[in-house]
């Protein structure tokens, strides 16, 4: 990930293979020299991405709750340090780079504010898990599976309206099915493992991780739910402070 002198061909080849295993191939701008602000603003979606990100962080109740929870956990998030708008592979919208504690937002794939809201929330859940737990993102697929389950469950990825937009319909247990499927898809996108390995990891940790609702305390199925969760989180902290 770091910039430096070119490696010898065998070492460089090995490093590229390792990067591919960890999904870095999906985020090619991670390895590029940074461009000037003028170039990014004129010739990419960078400026629009930054504006949408600012609106999400200031107004979206999912994001505001997670930002406050991260701050209280000792991991304050700064816009210019912990978020990066970059061009990505066409199959991803965002990612959490555990090596730099940075959230990557795919400026070429995020075109609508509602999409930005979900991506930021999803990745902030990964950041929260990274802050509060000793997550082995790179070697323990069960740890990755757990955070992907929580992100799909709590970010709004699996709301009824989003599923209808994907032409997916179901009745009893559909939310759980959506969470499981999206967690498996996320693992397969960033790790070179078989579908059977991803499914096994998700199934083994599903119940515990699906029922881990921190910091929301509930599954926020809508913005109204997220606002209530945010108020409850603030009140919970005020109660704790008075003990």
UniProtKB/TrEMBL annotation:
InterPro entries: Peptidase_M76_ATP23. One of its GO terms (cellular component) is mitochondrion. One of its GO terms (molecular function) is metalloendopeptidase activity. Residues 1-20 are annotated as: Disordered. Keywords: Hydrolase, Metal-binding, Metalloprotease, Protease. The keyword Ribosomal protein does not apply. Its EC number is 3.4.24.-. The keyword Protease applies. Transmembrane segments: none annotated. GO terms for biological process: mitochondrial protein processing; mitochondrial proton-transporting ATP synthase complex assembly. It is an enzyme of class 3 (hydrolase). Pfam families: Peptidase_M76 (PF09768). Belongs to the peptidase M76 family. This is Mitochondrial inner membrane protease ATP23. It comes from Sitta europaea (Eurasian nuthatch).
